[in-house]
Specification:
Layout lengths: L8 E9 L7 E6 L21 E2 L2 H11 L6 E5 L9 H14 L4 E6 L3 H5 L10 H7 L2 E4 L20 E4 H5 L17
Parallel strand pairs: 2-4, 4-5, 5-6
Antiparallel strand pairs: 1-2, 1-3, 6-7
Length: about 190
């Protein structure tokens, strides 16, 4: 696990989650978010120190839990996984998931839209951003917009958000953003 002065914090871990991606998932909510969407369902995770410090023991606990056979994948949410302070930790976790669990898919949520994450001038684009995107299968992107709230949408909360198939979008080096659908899910 990468070291830094202040560790990332984990606001919550949901085992056997069926709400944040297809199948049975291990969902990890990181803390820290500067986007502050009006109507956010977890505003407590805006605080970078909310929850439990992300220690080596917690890192190992997450990976050990993901090793259980019921899981189809892992979902990283927040807070904001793409806050610059969180990215080294998120990257390290995803590198471990990729090397140990190639049969599990990776979903990641962000209040940023995909173009903001791809833009080197963006405050959410760091030296780790592209590798995180390249290790993930699906990105649920865009801020929650309360006036566009729609609870019938699969895996997102407002109509402006996109569920992006990163695997298919990478083929064009993200010049052609491909939306995810059930038929593109890994089996």
């Amino acid at each position: 696990m990468k070291e830094r002065k202040e560790p990332m914090h984990i606001g919550q871990i949901i085992r056997d989650d069926v709400a944040n991606g297809p199948g049975i998932r291990l969902s990890v909510f990181v803390s820290g978010c500067r986007i502050h969407c009006k109507g956010c369902f977890q505003p407590q995770t805006w605080n970078f120190c909310f929850g439990t410090p992300y220690t080596e023991d917690l890192h190992t606990e997450i990976l050990d839990e993901l090793g259980n056979p019921q899981y189809d994948g892992i979902t990283i949410l927040g807070g904001e996984p793409f806050e610059p302070e969180n990215q080294p930790y998120v990257l390290d976790l995803l590198q471990q998931v990729y090397s140990r669990f190639s049969d599990r898919d990776v979903w990641i949520y962000s209040g940023c839209d995909i173009h903001e994450l791809l833009d080197p001038a963006s405050s959410h684009h760091t030296e780790h951003t592209m590798e995180i995107l390249n290790l993930a299968d699906v990105l649920v992107a865009g801020p929650f917009v309360e006036s566009l709230r729609n609870i019938s949408l699969p895996y997102c909360g407002s109509e402006n958000q996109q569920v992006i198939d990163l695997c298919r979008s990478r083929v064009s080096q993200y010049r052609n953003i491909v939306l995810w659908d059930d038929s593109s899910a890994r089996m």
